[in-house]
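Q: What would this complex look like in 3D?
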Amino acid sequence: MFISQRMKKIDLIIMKKFADDVSKEIVKFGNFQTIEISGEKAEDLLLKKSVSDAEIARFSDLDKRVSYLISTFESIMENIEMWESEEITEAGMIDAESLEKNVKTIESEVNLHYGNIERLRNEQRENKIRIKKVDYFSTQEVDWTRSTWMTFFTMGFGSVPLAGYVGFESAMETLPTVIEKVDTIDDTVIVFYVAPSSVKEKVSQILKSVYFKNYGIPETAAEVDKSSLVHHAFELSSAYDEEMWQEKQFKKKILDYRQLLKTLKNSARYYIAMERLKGEMASSEKVCIFSGWVPSKITNRFKKKMEQLTQNRCEILERSASKALAEEGLIAPTKLSNPFFIRPFEMLVSTFGTPNYREIDPTPLLAVTFVLMYGAMFGDVGQGLALVLLGIIIFFIKKFKSFRNFGTIFIYVGVSSAFFGLMYGAVFGFENVIKAIWMKPMDRVMDILTLSIIYGSFVILLAQILNIINSILGKDYPSFLFSRNGLAGFGFYGSLVYVAICLIRGIHYQEYIFVFTIVCALLISLEKYLERLLFSHHVSGAEDEKPTVTMAVVEIYESVMGFLSNTISFIRVGAFALNHIALMSVVFVLSYSSKNPIVQWVGLFIGNIIVIGFEGFIVGIQVMRLEYYEFFTRFFRADGKAFEGIGVYKP
Amino acid sequence: MFGEEYTSVYPKVKNWAASLVLSKDKCSEILSMNMPEYLQFLKALSKKIDLNTDDNVQLEGQLKQEGFYFIESISRYLLGYTKVFILYLGKIHEIENLKIITRSLLNKRPVNFLYRIHRTSRIQMEFVKDIKTLDEFQNLLGGTEYYRLASDAIPRIKNENTTFYFEMNLDNYYANSIKKQISRLGPDEKKQIKNIFFYYLNISRLLWIYRAKFNFSMSNEEIIAIVPNIPVIFSKSAYHSLLDSETKENFIEKLKNLGFLEVRDPDHFNLEKEMYFQLMKKGKSCLVGNPFSLSVFLGFFILNIIHVRNLITALEAKKLGVDAAKIMEMLVYD
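A: Here is my prediction, written as structure tokens for the whole assembly.
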């Protein structure tokens, strides 16, 4: 908690004959993030880099093809998951050739299936059009069999693909033709046209351009005889039946492929990991080197495994992260180590950024402040418990597995809302059901707003303390000493908060505190100058700048305004608590505008759902805003890179 | 209602748009670079891809690919029908893949580049690299929305040895589908899409009309059938009037009157370039308009197409050793 897992840089030098076994073990081990040995470094060590790009591309292609099959099958089977993401294991792995062969086999099965389905759909379409043709011609009082005698006119009955219909219609309109849109079947438009023979050539050019399929004008009476419908209807229903049978058979096959697909996906990922590992190592004829980050607490386990595997014929060089940074300029990746009950909040932190290796992980603080603020802003026992229920549903229903973290957060904020509901004495908006343990916000509007601001001040002070710690850890001394969120800022803001609290509580304070405030303000305004002077840092744009009074005044003014607006921003915590009550009052007014008790209860029910949905969501956004903009931006660098173990699947 | 759903789109687009090569200074800057410098510049310029090749075809492909990634990236910040529309916009790349594959199979050339698109699409490299014939390709399209189009077109492609009709059919299909997609959007969005994206679709269609009329000598009826006025940027009568143009000059004059181009330099007139110039002006006006609107992204999407066109033109011309002043004439900038 608070700091990420400590890392060690491991250089593993082994006999080349062990390379394959070691690679397999590293992938299986999972928690090894490779560090690519550059070509230059390899040359310095008289080693060579092996090229594995083509192989990586090969297995990535296979992985993509398997993923496509999985998503296609999942869309066909709807509620059946074909594959779940999990760590790569060796279990059931198949060799590369079989992997490729199996993927091809399944793909050809899929192609064959779709080919059959398309053939059947084509048959269905054909029969539907033929039925339409009989229907169309038989209902008109014309002897169509005489149409062949016509010399001055040409006519046709057929289909145009939907995509070409606009073109067909527009082009035919330019000629003296009559067209009738008979019907639209699936993606086909059935048309009948008549045109003078003088434009026959032009008409056929148009028909060709739009892929017109001619079904002809009936030449015999039998063609328009309704009895022929039976034949087409029979053909149509056979095509439907066959399609259904084909789909059923295919679904059975899909179920048979389920296990195989898991194996294929697992194998493809395994080979990608192996090839990546090979691509990042360097080797000579006899030895090879793997380089990577391993969490410190499992380094010994890793070393033992490697020694065992290579029969102690290996050299393992360990380096702490700080040494690796100082000597090789390598920055360790971040692997957060929060207890399971805080882990869902990591998602909210990572949306902002990943903490760097040397800074404080703000997840626990976010977890506490988020839950606290949410509850204070949305305090209602009933609605809080509804959120808990929603969270439990999300958490336990398999379909929502990927939203499980949200479910957990809902449970936390729901409990917090219910707790504050008890404090405020509110149950589903009713304020007379239970007695407020603490206070009713509407009765003490000023108190709740003042408390929000005081809370905000402490959050800002906490953020400054965190920035001071982060600056020390990151050896960023100018930020530690002179920045708005460093010692100077802490002194400046802290002294003002102290004075404000004294004024609110009517406590006497010493006036000399303002001297301290002014000194701190001056230090902030001279930050860049002092940084250059004391630490010889070149601050961009400040090389030739000498501090001036105007600059100092502007800086101080900006700092004061910044702190003021940031502090006032927290007023929304109290404002939303009041807003909640106001919104529920609206619900009550609207519901009680009817005298019918059933309507009243329905109104209250719907009103509560709307408030939980909309206000619950808006409060969530506001809390995130306070966390990100008022809290995180003061201390959180968020410029780290997350640890990615080679065998650990990242979705 | 007030465009609040686009609040997160604007900063992203602003950031991406900052590096577009669409001004005279930037164009001159890239032309002053030698080839290695230019390649290095391209690598630094890319926001969403690692340009990791010196091969021209691959490099051009990777530059174009970024357009798809922009769509994917923006779609993550949107919800509802707008998201669906933006994702559908990306289908333009799938359609382009279909065209590339068909051309390659017809000419018996290997497929060198295809857009990497959604994982749910089979119309990308992994799935087509073993395909050798148009019939195999048709089989691969089984179960997709393109099967019908392909099954109608492939016999004709084989007979007439041209993919022209199929490609136009695909474009019509896309234009019709996108029209259907926007029917569910609000009136403001519809207007913005028509103003910039349909304008862009129309430009490609007008160029096809020009080629069909003056290069392939096709009849008006056939042109209307193949390139109908689907985007409806201008009226039916204006469309017919364009088709009735007897000379190229007459056609260009009418386009000028319709606001699709202005002849800035008659001595170095290039129809495509001038039309893209107008498009660029429209795209840029979208970027400086209401920041909380769909047109911000649409404008950027279009500008990116012109930007990539500039980069590729410069790349190819540089490789061929064309004089910088000549290349400058081919680029679109203001």
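A: To summarize the key features: Chain A has 21 helices and ten strands. The domain at 129-230 of chain A is CATH 3.30.70.2750 (Alpha-Beta Plaits).
Q: Very helpful, thank you.
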